[in-house]
Amino acid sequence: MNKTKIKRAVAYIRVSTKSDTQLHSYDYQVEYYKGLIERNPNLEYVGIYSDWGISGRWLAKRPQLNQLLEDAKEHKFDVVYTKSVSRLSRNTTELLEMVRELRDLGVKVVFEKENIDTFDPSAEVFLTIAAAVAENDLRVYSENQRWAVRKRFESGYMTIGCRILGYTMDKDTNTLIVNEEEAKIVRRIFDLYLQGFGFAPISLILKNEGYINTKGTTEWGRGAIRYILKNEKYKGCSLTQKSYNKDGMKFTNHGEIKKYYMEDTHEPIISPEVFEKVQKLMYERCSKDQIGREAIPPYPFTGKIVCGCCGHLYNHKFSATNKTWRKEIWTCSHQNNYSRKVCTSSRIKDEVLKEKFIEAYNEFIEKKPDNEVVLEIKMRIKSLLDDERELTALKVNRLIKLDEFNVEIEKIRKELKETNIELNKHMMRGVKKSDYTKIDDFDETKVDKFIDHIVIDDYTVTFHFTNGIAIKKKYTNGPSGNQKGWKNKKLNQMEG
Q1: What are phi and psi of 28, to 5 degrees?
Q2: What is the dihedral of CA 452, 458, 459, 465, to 10 degrees?
Q3: Radius of gyration from C-alpha coordinates of the chain
Q4: Measured between alpha carbons, how far is 55 from 25 in angstroms, rounded to an integer?
Q5: Which of 75, 61, 78 is nearest to 14 (CA)?
Q6: Burial class (CB in 10 A: 0-12, 13-18, 19+), 263
Q7: Is the pTM of this model over 0.85?
Q8: Which CATH number is correct for 157-296, 3.30.70.330, 3.40.50.300, 3.40.720.10, 3.90.1750.20?
Q9: In the predicted model, what is the mean pLDDT of the chain?
Q10: What's the CATH number of domain 7-141, 3.40.50.1390, 1.20.1250.20, 3.40.366.10, 3.10.50.40?
Q11: Which residues pair with 82 in a beta bridge?
Q12: Is the pLDDT score of 153 beyond 50?
């Protein structure tokens, strides 16, 4: 008598906030899935993967889900249980890509709410529908939230998105109240800048003087200093919607949405005169390349590059102020604000990134079939769906034996699944046939139309196209861009 093989099972849980309600939900889910697995004699409980306070839109920002995928490659489990499609991902392309990868590794995913088993031949069709519904629900919810926020801003209601050094929020009156101990730090920062100290020296001075930041440490990033010096709230005013979220990513608002400026919303820590003096000084200290940068449209890669090491976005900057050595580069924002101790990702020159994009894009174009092929695939899907409906009608009218029906319907659904996979690989939303042209020079419109996001890690840049195709390119910045060799180039230039 053959024994049923015991499957190793895990569960994935994602809670979008850290509220008390969500905490209760998390505890309940842990107990539920642990019990569900342990009660099944054919399953062995391995553990729980959980992400807290993270959107389901963006895979790169969910460390536990990424860990689950890595553990799957090492064959640490056979089955993954999760509450619903939206818990795993609200991005249709990303979800299908993830499920296919797990299936190829021999790992089954069970979505309880939708009753979908990814080992079922028809699962792909139902997953596509469910994921599309989840993605649309997120979009509708986000639009409703944005509408509500706009109405509050228009009525003069102030919202604080994050903790502000020097203030505490009175929730009853929705007013910022000065925290005098922290306000001393803010005044110290403004004073030091007026004395001629830059962002980095101020960071070091604050650390040496033992000042504590909002995270409870003495580590002050240069970005944090700049943020404080430019924050109009310290003069008692509020500018809302400086940034906005799109597809789970945060972007600086360059006029894409309306900003709201309100005066005298709370008690100032810095006088308006001192604040404006600092703004003028910051402007004067900027290099010619940096003056007025906020009025310049964002770079084509802005908001699209994700660090493969820590999950933070990459920022555009200049490597030096001296024109001889200055290069446009992209660096991890987390590493740039702190150090390589927190993130070891590699930087990339802007020119190199553009060069690798051209290579990846042209390679992608070679793989892309003509629209006629896409049309042919769609017609094949329509034919299969017609066959499925006709076969079901025969079953309902008892014109076909059940065994025969099961065999034929399985064949159709298997072919339908394979055909949908083929279609998904070649479909590009919002892209015309005329857009599929090879390029010799960088074209930023191609980035907007074809690129979903870019991941950089260990001198490898991976371009993720909107249809799910990913193309990796190794790169080097040359002697001046990588950690090793830049000194040799500098010496050679000096000798020349």
Answers
A1: -60, -45
A2: -10
A3: 27
A4: 16
A5: 61
A6: exposed
A7: no
A8: 3.90.1750.20
A9: 75
A10: 3.40.50.1390
A11: 12, 111
A12: no
